[in-house]
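User: Please run a holo structure prediction.
Assistant: Happy to. Please share the sequence and the ligand.
User: Here you go; the ligand is magnesium ion.
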Amino acid sequence: MEYIDAKLLITAVKPSQYPDTLVPEIAFVGRSNVGKSSLINCLTNRNKLARTSSTPGKTATINFYDIAGRFRLVDLPGYGYAKVSKTEQERWAKMIETYLTDRYNLVQVIQLVDARHKPTQDDITMLNWIRRFGYTPVVVATKLDKLKKSQIESNLTLIYHTLALDDSCFLLPFSAEKKTGREDLAEFIDTLCSR
Ligand code: GTP
Ligand code: MG
């Protein structure tokens, strides 16, 4: 499945700047540097649509990407990066929270975790927040290409248990680099937004 005609619609820091037509939105959350912006580029097959960086803290605003006027992918700042100042982290946290709580055309929050590591306390807190707001947990384990084949199953199991996932949840192995899981995620999002 191709996401044709993807474009950056608006960059926002507060609700008055959000797009006002209410097409379905899918938001991506996760630690700084986990690969949120890269995942959006991978989904849209556009290398430079969302700006990425090997330095964490790249995305500092809420970026709305329009997909052919049908739905939007929403890139949020990351959390949990110690080198971003406390004030800045708090500002981002507030910005993320405001968006997530007030946005009624938000159909799903998708959480990214690094496939190489045990999810952090921040990840657990984030996922519990997603549950509390009534979304089914959907977790994407990124950077799968950085794991050896022999590590994949045990790492995914660790993520599954650490985040207390169950059969009702989705855990999708993904690599923006190799496009692993891209087709499944693209279909999944398209279905969510077509309901
Ligand atoms: P912030 O905007 O800082 O919150 O980060 P982000 O979550 O948007 O991460 P970003 O997409 O900027 O990616 C961070 C770094 O990880 C970049 O150097 C990417 O090239 C790299 N990266 C992202 N996804 C993958 C992946 O699937 N595989 C590999 N090998 N590298 C990846
Ligand atoms: Mg980013």
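The chain has one domain: 6-194.
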